[in-house]
Amino acid sequence: MIHALEHAFLDTLKLIPFLFLTYLLLEWIEHKAAQKTESLAAKAGKLGPLAGSLLGVIPQCGFSASASNLYAGGVISAGTLIAIFVSTSDEMLPIMISEQIAPLRILAILGIKVACGILIGFALDFILRFRKNKTEKPSISHICEEENCHCEKGIFLSSVIHTLQIALFVFLFSFLIELTIDWIGEDTISAFTANAGIFTPLVAALIGLIPNCASSVVITELFLSDVISTGAMLAGLIANSGVGLLVLFRVNKNIKRNLLIMLAVYLTGAFTGVLFDLLGIVL
Q1: Which among 15, 87, 96, 280 would be 20 to 30 A from 235, CA to CA?
Q2: Which of 113, 74, 66 is nearest to 216 (CA)?
Q3: CA-CA distance, 24 to 45, in Å (whole number)?
Q4: What are the pLDDT digits (tens) for 90-114?
């Protein structure tokens, strides 16, 4: 119990600066530059997945959570969001650096994640463009309306309220996940993943969807210990986006779109992992 509380608290604490700065930006946009920014986002959105994938690979705790808020506010597209989710490295990068893995090997893994993010991001935006309601415009104000954040009292106070609301939600959910992982045991999860046979990439991608740093830690450690293949490792790490999906389901009310994004993340990881295993590619 204490272990779960400690991990949930620390994970949430790391997110708070990113959440606050993101909401401060969103509030400023809503109050000062809503029309100009929405117009700019609409014009520049086609290149969003490229920028999102490149930015996502930078080791920044909380970036995927910030991206979910920006997507819910209509600032970035679904393709840009998924590009960030796919390229985000979470705990993989610091673990590999601490284990003194060859830089070229790390760059190869990150490069694959970036390439997958770019491809799936542009593909999703291309598909959704034909289904988009032409009368719809990006809107940030609905976040404030949903959360009752008292925007009329100033953007600073509103940003603090938004941040505390989401931080509390993430803390509670992370605590439940930590309790579940502690109850099942990381060794049990590792054994299950390693013994899945030809289905290992599919299982690894499913574990990667767990909105917690433990999933990326397990996948990375299993790979470095030569327990799972390159394909399984890529499947799990591509599907992992930290708490990005958790925040997305909290702030975005379009459940069907959220499920589509989650499915796309999973399938991207699973397909990439299976392809690498079938081709026998080893990193």
Answers
A1: 15
A2: 113
A3: 21
A4: 678 777 877 788 999 999 999 999 9
Residue listed under structure tokens 């990667």: 208
C-alpha span between 201 and 171 (Å, rounded): 29
- Report the alpha-carbon angle 180-267-278, nearest 5: 105
Residue with structure tokens 């450690």? Answer: 221
Q: From CA 268, how far away is CA 83, in angstroms rounded?
A: 11
Q: Are 224 and 241 in contact (CB under 8 A)?
A: no
pLDDT of residue 58: 72
Q: What does the pLDDT look like over 36-46, one tens digit per residue?
A: 544 444 444 57
pTM: 0.73
Query: Measuring CA to CA, which residue among 277, 247, 71 is closest to residue 171?
Result: 247
Straight-line distance from the first to the last Cα atom of the chain, in angstroms, rounded to the nearest whole number = 38
Residues in the chain: 283
